Amino acid sequence: MTNSTLHLTIITQDHELLSEDVESVTVPTTEGEITVLPEHIPLFARLQIGELVYRVNGTAHSVVVSRGFIEVSPDSKVTIMADVAAHEREIVLEKAEAAVHAAQETMKQTVDQHELMMADAELKRALLEVKVAQKTRRGTTV
Questions:
Q1: pLDDT of 94-129, one tens digit each?
Q2: Helices (H), the chain
Q3: Are residues 82 and 112 in the same domain?
Q4: Do 96 and 82 share a structural domain?
Q5: Does residue 118 form part of some domain?
Q6: CA distance 37 to 87
C-alpha cells in the first residue's frame, strides 16, 4: 500500500468479502454519504443500507451494504463491518427481483410491526441490488 491508496476490507457476519488496495471509498452513513481518500482523518461511523463504491485504477466497483460500521484508521486502512454485503459480481438480477417481490408480499400480508420492519429492510436492500445488477449488466460505472 502506498500513500496514494487505502486498504479496504469488507467483513460480514460470516465472511470477508473484500481485502484490496483502492483509490477511494464512498459509503452511505447514517449522517449522509462520505468519501474516504488516502490520509483521511480517523473516523468511526454507522452505515445505513446503500451502495458502497470503491475505485481501483480509476474503475468504480459497487457493493451493496446493510447496516454496520465503517472505521478509518490513521494508517489509511478502511474497515467496513456490515450485517450483509453483496459485491456487484455476486448479485443475480433474477434473485434480487424475486427478493423484491417476496418482501412486497410480506409487507402486504403482515400486521406484525417487527415483520414489517424486517420486510422493509429486505425490500430496500433487494431494490438496491436490482439497481446495481442492472447498472453492472449495462457496463456503466459510477
A1: 777 777 778 888 888 888 888 888 887 777 777 777
A2: 93-109, 113-138
A3: no
A4: no
A5: yes
A6: 21
3-class SS of residue 83: coil
Closest by CA to 136, choosing from 55, 73, 62, is 62
User: Which region holds residue 119: left if phi is over 0, alpha if psi is between -120 and 50, else beta?
Assistant: alpha
Among 69, 67, 81, residue whose Cα is nearest residue 12: 81
For the CA atoms of 31, 64, 75, 55, the dihedral, rounded to the nearest 10 degrees, stands at: -110
Q: Which domain holds residue 62?
A: 6-88
Cell numbers 462520505 correspond to what residue? 34
The answer on 58 and 84 residing in a single domain is yes
Whole-prediction pTM:
0.71
